[in-house]
DNA sequence: CGTATTTGACCGGCGC
DNA sequence: GCGCCGGTCAAATACG
């Protein structure tokens, strides 16, 4: 993990300039997005905490070759490669990509968010008497950025908002949500980037212990271990056409892994209503030229914020 | 009426 | 010790 942090520091991350202002989806859903598998030192981190590897102990990443993911993220990164900065220096993002150390991810498991409820209880208890000095361990975190007009993306789970706070150095407040499922203690924070107001940063904390209440149509079906998504067959086959289901973090990783091995790049899996495009995960996100993307792809990609590591492979265009 | 949201207050951690 | 800040609680309110 420390190792990763070092990596991070050396690479000064940021978003890529691939974000376009056009083609924003009215109903942003999870895969407008792109996850940012970044790790941060949550002690020092700014408001944007990406994948907080240091806290990953809850995720039960089922793939033993998770390192593949790392490789995917890292393999093409050369030390000389200067960081790509987006529209702005965005120092907030400088915590950079930290693609997790595979071992740190895959070796986890353990108390899934099931203890989320307990967490709450213990918290309440601690309010009464003097609390112990037991430092509460953080849930695994997973954050991603979305280019969206709406803050709260529908990810297929039901969330109850329990708080909102003003964010320092940002005109936009941060909203706090908790999964409404009683046994599920998953939380998420949603805030809009002050650097780029079209970007919404969503941070998940914990792991769902229940299936998603709605299922997507098509999207996750592309995954061999389809059942994996939705953790157990997930919910009702109902599937709302207007909703896209958000996978859990490890599900996303699965998708990444899978897709990165499929080399399927230009076949949309979703209807036009849905915004996810496989190009998001395309095998060669580091394509040397933007022109590599077809016009169509670009249209689909423009809402996505690619993982910083990936973006860093993009040629830097001085403008 | 049940559920979700809003919002001010409160708490704990951390830096100075 | 104090103040700042992030996160949470919970009463009040809104909504369907």
UniProtKB/TrEMBL annotation:
Main location: nucleus
Bias-annotated ranges (Low complexity): 98-110
SUPFAM superfamilies from the UniProt entry: WRKY DNA-binding domain
PROSITE patterns listed in its UniProt record: WRKY
Bias-annotated ranges (Basic residues): 124-135
UniProt domain WRKY: residue ranges: 148-213
Gene Ontology MF terms in the entry: DNA binding
Keywords: DNA-binding, Nucleus, Transcription, Transcription regulation
Annotated TM spans: none
Cellular localisation: Nucleus
Residues covered by region (Disordered): 80-138
Gene Ontology CC annotation, any one: nucleus
Full protein name: WRKY domain-containing protein
């Amino acid at each position: 993990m420390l190792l990763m942090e070092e990596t991070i520091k050396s690479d000064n991350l940021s978003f890529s300039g691939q974000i376009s202002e056009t083609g924003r989806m009215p109903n942003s859903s999870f895969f407008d997005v792109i996850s940012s598998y970044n790790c941060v030192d949550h002690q020092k981190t700014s408001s944007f905490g990406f994948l907080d590897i240091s806290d990953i102990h809850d995720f039960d990443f089922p793939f033993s070759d998770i390192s593949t993911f790392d490789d995917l993220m890292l393999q093409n990164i050369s030390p000389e490669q200067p960081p790509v900065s987006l529209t702005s220096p965005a120092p907030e993002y400088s915590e950079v990509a930290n693609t997790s150390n595979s071992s740190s991810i895959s070796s986890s498991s353990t108390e899934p968010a099931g203890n989320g409820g307990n967490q709450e209880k213990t918290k309440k208890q601690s309010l009464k008497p003097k609390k112990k000095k037991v430092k509460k361990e953080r849930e695994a975190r997973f954050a991603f950025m979305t280019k969206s007009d709406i803050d709260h993306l529908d990810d297929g789970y039901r969330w109850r908002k329990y708080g909102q706070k003003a964010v320092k150095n940002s005109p936009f407040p941060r909203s706090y949500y908790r999964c409404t499922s009683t046994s599920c203690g998953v939380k998420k924070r949603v805030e809009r980037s002050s650097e780029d107001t079209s970007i919404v940063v969503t941070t998940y904390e914990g792991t769902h212990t229940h299936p998603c209440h709605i299922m997507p149509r098509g999207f996750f079906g592309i995954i061999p271990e389809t059942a994996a998504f939705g953790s157990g067959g997930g919910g009702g086959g109902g599937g709302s056409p207007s909703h896209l289901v958000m996978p859990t973090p490890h599900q996303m990783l699965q998708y990444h892994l899978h897709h990165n091995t499929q080399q399927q790049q230009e076949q949309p899996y979703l209807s036009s209503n849905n915004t996810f495009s496989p190009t998001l995960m395309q095998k060669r996100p580091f394509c040397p030229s933007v022109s590599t993307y077809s016009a169509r792809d670009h249209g689909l990609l423009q809402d996505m914020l690619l993982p910083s590591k990936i973006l860093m492979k993009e040629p830097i265009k001085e403008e």
